[in-house]
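Chapter summary example.
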Amino acid sequence: MDDQASVPESAVIDVPQPDFGETVAEVLVSTQGAQPYLDAISAQNRTALA
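The structure predicted for these 50 residues follows.
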């Protein structure tokens, strides 16, 4: 996600999930005043994690 202009830093972490044991969550740090394009980020994540 760090290639998005509005997201200079990101991290993907494991979080507990009752049905599957764990799942992933992404933490985004956006540029001050910027609005990240969450639809584009979600689409990129689906492709990367598939």
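To summarize the output: The chain has one helix and two strands.
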